[in-house]
Amino acid sequence: MKRVLFVHAQREFSLAYWVLRQAVQQYCVTDVAFFEHAYVLDDVDNQETLRIRLALLHPDVVLFSCQNWNLKAFLEVAGWVRHFWPAATIVLGGPQVSSLLAAETLLRTHQSIDFVVRGPGEIPLCGLLDTLFAGRSDNVSSLSYRDGDAVAHTAIVHTPWRRERLFTWSNIELVQRLREVSQVSYETTRGCSSRCIYCQYPSENCDVEMLDEKLVLEELTFLCSFHIPHLRICDAHLGGTRERAKTILRHLAKVNRKTSIKIYPDISHVDEEYLDLVRASGARITSIGVQSTHTPILKAIRRKSVQAFRRQIRMTLDAFPDTPADVILGLPGGGVDAFRQTLMDVRRLGFSWINVFRLTVFPGTELATNVCHFLGEGPIGNTATGVVLSSPEYPLEQQQEIATLVAAAKLGTALRHTAVEVANRGNQPDIIRLLTQMDAALLHRLATEVENLRTPVPLLEDIFVLSTAVVKLAGYTPALVTALCFDILTRAKWICARNKATHFIWANEDQLVPVSLVVARGGGILFSWELEKQSISTIGNEKDASGNGEKYLFFDLDVFDGREEK
């Protein structure tokens, strides 16, 4: 029996391993034993652990699943695998190596690599293993390999995505693995209907392929009945079509009881029924991909504007207020002013949070094949993994301004009522512009505290500092104080819910009355914000309601009349 070791970097569950393993069992002529090894990048002992595994297993083929964030580590591993086991065949696969350019470059520069599988790997891998082990001479699709001094490539053949049921009680080994993990990734489709220039989806395998609907519903029933704590459906857009997405959500609403489910919707699919089904299914929307609102940028990257879907976004945020927007920094066709405008537009769209990602140049994408055309003639700074640090449109001298904008956006989207009140006053700038007038170090610290969901609430003293700063910049009015109070408490309530804090108390938000927040988790924080007195009242160290003697932290700060902290 031949042995294949599949090396991935997923800490818990690798869907690719189980799908490839099933394909090998179904389609390979040769008797192949398929093993996995999770090479956890932040584990200091991972190299020696893998060496021991290799020495005990002595595999005939070592297959690496390559992503942008693990390729460098896996190339190093491939080097010493070749040193210790020179007879082993080393194969790379995964999205980071799927383009012709990436495969050719890797095979020319890394002699330890024997083959690169491009695109979906199930059928090509089976063909390669049969060629290696059974002496077949068929031309295997989707492969890159050395042919003398040259690198040869075979074409990707689009085969329908068909597999047998994988998630089932009869799959004893998988059932055992699921008992050991808290999160499972699952996909009902492959590919994406969009053709963004920076994305790895289009390349040679751009068609959207859908897994058999009956099989999907059966497997989702199994996963929900297994009570997997967290299920991430990693389709580019859930279901591929609106009706298929609704069918999946409708089924989840029937079978899901305890599983937390994350999905990525196509915003154009959203309507009232869609959102009702998301809510009924127990799912949450991971994010909405805005990327940019600047028309020249959208034209350059060939992407539709979310501005055309304002109604769907508003409906989504009404149903799921904590849904973040994804924005990409460094896209061609705009510059810093366009980035600033996008951040302000995202806030006006009503998002309560924003994820900012720097543009990454992935090999094989349209962006990668003509970087200078898209990013401009001039110096381009990027990391080893292709993250763009600076470009002619986003020069080094503007990086401090960019960093301040990002911090202001993160803070500004969390201050929704405050932003409305500032805008209603007429003589004030947008909340993001207002926050950029704060001390830069203070702004970044506050943005970091708001972003940190591992603590029940942001540091109490920083809440007071933020309130003081905003009031000083915008000018005191009772309405502004009220808006600030509600924004801070709403954010705290959300963080408390995420962290399962004990309880949360606040008064009628339509009246200017005392408002109190009580949080207990390990230790506790208690403060009372009396709007009528416009001050923070000191209560002192008290026992909580249960009398267990937990100490609370109190800060005494006269916030709104301009005096210094006592």
Describe the structure.
The protein is α/β, with parallel strands linked by helices and about 575 residues long. A hairpin with a 1-residue loop joins strand 19 and strand 20 (about 525-530). Helix 1 (about 15-25) packs across helix 5. The radius of gyration is 27 Å and the shape is globular. Mean pLDDT is about 80; it is low at about 455-460 and about 500-565.
Mean pLDDT value: 81
Largest sheet: spatial strand order = 2-1-3-4-5-6-7
Low-confidence stretches: 453-460, 499-566
Radius of gyration from the alpha-carbon trace, in angstroms: 27 Å
Structural category is alpha/beta
Number of helices: 20
In this structure, how is the largest beta sheet organized? Answer: 7 strands, mixed
Please give the alpha-carbon distance between the first and last residues.
77 Å
Provide the β-strand percentage band.
15-25%
Short description:
Helix content is 39%, strand content 17%.
Short key terms for the protein model shown above:
20 helices, alpha/beta, 39% helix, disordered C terminus, globular, seven-stranded mixed beta sheet, 566 residues, four-stranded parallel beta sheet
Give the topology, please:
Layout: E1 2-8, H1 15-27, E2 32-38, H2 46-57, E3 61-65, H3 71-84, E4 89-93, H4 100-109, E5 115-117, H5 122-134, E6 143-147, E7 150-153, H6 172-178, E8 183-186, E9 189-190, E10 209-210, H7 213-225, E11 230-233, H8 242-255, E12 260-263, H9 272-281, E13 283-285, E14 288-291, H10 295-301, H11 310-319, E15 325-329, H12 336-349, E16 354-358, H13 366-369, H14 371-375, E17 381-382, E18 388-390, H15 399-413, H16 416-424, H17 431-435, H18 440-451, H19 460-474, H20 478-498, E19 515-521, E20 523-530, E21 535-537, E22 552-553
Parallel strand pairs: 1-2, 1-3, 3-4, 4-5, 8-11, 11-12, 12-13, 14-15, 15-16, 20-22
Antiparallel strand pairs: 5-6, 6-7, 9-10, 17-18, 19-20, 20-21
Helix pairs in contact: 1-5, 7-8, 8-9, 12-15, 15-18, 16-20
